[in-house]
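Lab manual, section 2.4: Encoding a predicted structure.

Procedure: take the sequence of the chain (341 residues), apply the prediction step described in section 2.3, and record the output as structure tokens. A sample record is shown.
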Amino acid sequence: MNKQSVQQEEELIYWVEDIKDKNGSSAAALYIIKDNQVVMEHYSGRHSHEENARHVQADSRFNVASARKSYLGLAAAYALYDRYIESLDDPITRYTTDLDSKLFKDTTIRHLLTHSHGLDVDEHGHCFREFRTGTSWAYRNIGVDIMTKLIANLYGKGFPQLLEERVFSKLGLEQTGWVTEKDENLVNIIGEVNEPPLSGIGTTNDGTEKNLFVSPREFALWGLLHLQKGRIDGEQIVPAEVIERSTSIQNGRYADSSLPDNGFFWYVQGTPRMKSEIGDRVPRGSYQILGVTGPTLLIIPSLNVVVAKMYNKRYNYGGKDYLYFLREFSNKVSDLFSSGK
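Recorded output:
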């Protein structure tokens, strides 16, 4: 390892720790795989700010919040592979009678998976249209909710159960799951720093709640599965085309060229976009996903790198400048491994 690489690696860990301290996270972890080898494993802090809280360890499991969408995205790719969904461009109304046919007219599976559906829900729970389908981009959870229900209806089981059968059991995952009971290895969620921590535990494991907890190692392994096109230790666990479909750009072109490109909920790097969470120095074909509490999974295929970064503070990167911090980190990772580490 050359002197420059050592310095960049130290800067990467310093950056992770600085964000943890500035934004009020009590816990942080960084787990990096390069060329199928673990090259960085860093844990710090405690499961909450409480005095006797458990120290973060290798088996600590973080609530990954919206990063769970990458798991739902893979389930959606399976539904296409299994022909439960005929085409990405099928209208969602073809598969359900529960939606307003007028409001959801021309809203396709593709639109729902790429945040280009143009729908939102008001404070009274009423769905309304923000913009015409496919013409713009907005991060709204209604698309996630619809896809979650769709997968459950198509398979007769929630997408977590589908993935347990198809993927998790074959990977031997033991620290990945939608949690409904307390356990000492669960990292609490920090809402306000001066308030009691939140458990993040849910009431069901069917994927309808934000209660997915994952250890840093298994989060990185999830990324490695995607990097290697579904192949782990010589076994093709997931068909390569399922992975490729979910992690390649699937949205149409937008009039606003600053809007991000998406695969199946993943942010995907094509031409760098100013409103993407992926930095402009990150190579084409890379993809990333994150959650509101700070966990981030970044895959850079051209550098053969997977990065799992974990925090536990809601709105961990602050307010309007959160994209700056996300882009800065991904650029630092790219710089480190592009330099020949």
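Check your result against the sample. The radius of gyration is 19 Å.
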